[in-house]
Design goal:
alpha+beta; Beta-galactosidase, Chain A, domain 5
Length: 616
């Protein structure tokens, strides 16, 4: 049975990632890329679906863990009745290989360690052929299944019922190393790495990257960790930014809202780019833009909402029957059916991010601006189409207000590209369309009776995505209509002090109702509070949210407040980038004057600890 989601830590080499449990078991690993088939899949089943356990044999051992400074080198210190050891887990960065290192270092006394290694390739569909590594001074195993091969070097392992186990003692001052390397099975076995050198260079690389962060505030440590998560989810070679490291961690325990997030959503990647740019990471902007231009090149009418890490377009969704799901939550899905959806907002997110890149000094070239013009031409012809919206509903297409606002943002950034950056284009036509879209939103996307923008045209419901309106400049945070919208969101969507995305029982998304509060939405509310002058409310809500971050600073997609568990795919880029924006907004408003809050409607401060909704 898998651990609670918050009991896992991430290690990454910026090509893929592993989840390491507080019990010392690596329960999720896909090699060589984030979206490869799993070889350790216990996260979505149990130990027989693949794992690598390395921990004291003492069942009463106590573990405390942390990352070494601003890195993804994980330190787990185990305290037993006989002594203390540290296990260092990391994936070496920058060598172009797919390696994973587990180093055991004796601190005091002597600790008896156990190792349990179960290879299960292809989402636990294949038990590989395993043989002993010969001709080297270090003991090891070779596991092969079709195109994939693994070599493991370290303490001697013996076969036992489709697993390999070992037991060894580590005394104070001693070091025992284990390393695993993936390689294509048709190639020669890779040589062992120099672990000391790999450790030093990996630590130095992560710390050098983190040192560029420009945020200064009381939450700096968590902001840096969140930025590191965003970097860890960015593929080193292609520049693609995955939404999360996992697939099918449920949005409701035991339910079927289980999706594969190991792909590049234009929306999430664009929002990530904006956050990185705002903290001094202009280099990432150029790499991501290059990825974007490659991925969407072609007929603008064929633009997808998501792609594979290298820009792959074919991502069909199917169920994996060899994995039973996280604590039985099925089905497990690979691929994502949303790839075929029309979501007009993504062009807006892309245009907003690319304009931010221009403002940061990333110059357009002979390819980048013409491609944006082609996107805008497509949007000119298609902006009135109903779509599936930001939440990728699987019900009927609708005219979602958030989508229309992002259409407005697309035309706005195109206009600004001409007016502010001297680019060429049909300025007057785009300005006229920008005004037309705004009028459409204000007329059809606003409920005068509630003094609130609505989820979609014709609805009286609200949606947490409406909190994005001030973020993209559609209105001021203190605009009377925005304040009325915030009041409606507080009234309708607040659940256990956090925000739901929308009311799932409203039969909007075509799925069984019920999910937990969505963390990014609550961080958006923090940002809105801060930018509209409600600083005490912003502080109270972000402090509540910080209590849901796990012991190494990671967040999933949602949170089950009643039972105290993280929910959904993990770690989630959108949660972490929204955290950074919220922290930035608080610092900005504490350090500079804020315009007076206009309150034409009666608003109340939500109860940040009590339940105000029965949905979720």
């Amino acid at each position: 049975m898998a651990l609670p989601i918050e009991d896992y830590a991430l290690i990454s080499d910026c090509h893929t990632a592993a989840l390491v449990g507080i019990d010392g078991s690596i329960d999720w690993l896909c090699l060589p890329r984030y979206d490869s088939a799993s070889m350790f899949g216990a996260l979505l089943g149990d130990e027989n679906h693949g794992r690598w356990l390395l921990a004291p044999a003492d069942d009463e051992a106590i573990a405390t863990r942390s990352y070494h400074a601003d890195t993804f080198v994980l330190s787990t210190v185990w305290t037993t009745t006989t002594g203390q050891v540290e296990v260092l887990d990391f994936m070496p960065h920058g060598d172009g290989r797919a390696d994973l290192v587990r180093r055991v270092r004796g601190i005091s006394g002597t600790v008896h360690m156990t190792q349990d290694l179960r290879f299960r390739f292809g989402y636990a569909s294949i038990v590989p052929w395993v043989r002993q590594l010969k001709g080297e001074p270090v003991r090891g195993l070779i596991a092969i299944a079709g195109p994939d091969a693994i070599v493991v070097r370290g303490p001697a392992l013996r076969a036992s019922d489709h697993r390999h186990v070992s037991h060894f003692d580590v005394a104070a001052g001693e070091t025992v190393d284990a390393q695993m390397t993936w390689y294509p099975s048709h190639r020669e076995i890779p040589a062992a790495i120099d672990i000391d050198a790999a450790y030093a260079s990996t630590c130095a690389w992560w710390q050098d990257w983190a040192s560029s962060c420009s945020h200064e505030g009381p939450l700096r440590a968590q902001v840096v960790r969140s930025l590191l998560v965003l970097r860890a989810l960015t593929h080193e070679q292609t520049g693609g930014i995955v939404a999360a490291a996992t697939t099918s961690l449920p949005e409701k325990f035991g339910g079927s809202r289980n999706w594969d997030y190991r792909y590049v959503w234009l929306r999430d990647a664009s929002l990530t780019l904006e956050v990185l740019l705002s903290h001094g990471y202009e280099g990432e902007a150029g790499n991501w833009r290059a990825w974007l231009l490659r991925a969407i090149a072609g007929d603008p009418g064929d633009v997808q909402i998501m792609y594979g890490l290298s820009g792959e377009r074919y991502l069909p969704e199917h169920e994996v029957t060899t994995l039973p799901g996280y604590n039985g939550a099925s089905p497990v899905r690979v691929g994502n059916g949303a790839v075929d959806q029309f979501q007009s907002d993504v062009i807006g997110e892309v245009m907003v991010a690319l304009h931010a890149a221009r403002a940061a000094g990333v110059h357009e070239d002979e390819f980048s601006w013409p491609l944006q013009r082609a996107l805008m031409k497509f949007l000119e012809e298609n902006w009135r189409r109903p779509d599936q919206g930001i939440w990728e509903v699987r019900g009927q297409a609708r005219e979602f207000t958030h989508s229309r606002v992002m259409v407005w943002a697309a035309f706005d950034r195109a206009v600004r590209g001409i007016e502010e950056c001297g680019l060429d284009g049909p300025l007057e036509r785009w300005k006229a369309l920008r005004d037309e879209v705004r009028a459409d939103i204000e007329t059809r996307g606003f409920d005068a009776n509630r003094n609130s923008y609505v989820q979609f045209y014709g609805s009286t419901q609200v949606d947490a995505s409406l909190l994005v309106l001030p973020q993209v400049g559609f209105c001021a945070p203190t605009d009377p209509r925005m304040l009325g919208t915030v009041a409606a969101i507080e009234n309708d969507l607040m659940h256990d002090g956090l925000l739901l995305r929308y009311r799932t029982h409203a039969e909007v998304d075509g799925l069984p109702p019920g999910e937990h509060p969505f963390l990014a939405c609550s961080f958006w509310l923090v940002e809105q509070y801060a930018r509209s002058g409600r600083l005490d409310d912003a502080d109270a809500l972000i402090n509540l949210l910080m209590g849901f971050v796990n012991d190494v600073g990671l967040l999933s997609e949602e949170y089950d407040v009643a039972n105290g568990h993280q929910v959904g795919n993990f770690p989630q880029a959108l949660s972490h980038l929204a955290l950074v924006r919220a922290a930035d907004a608080i610092v900005a408003r504490w350090s500079s004057p804020v315009e007076p809050v206009v309150e034409p409607v009666e608003t109340t401060v939500p109860n940040l600890v009590s339940t105000s909704s029965t949905d979720g």
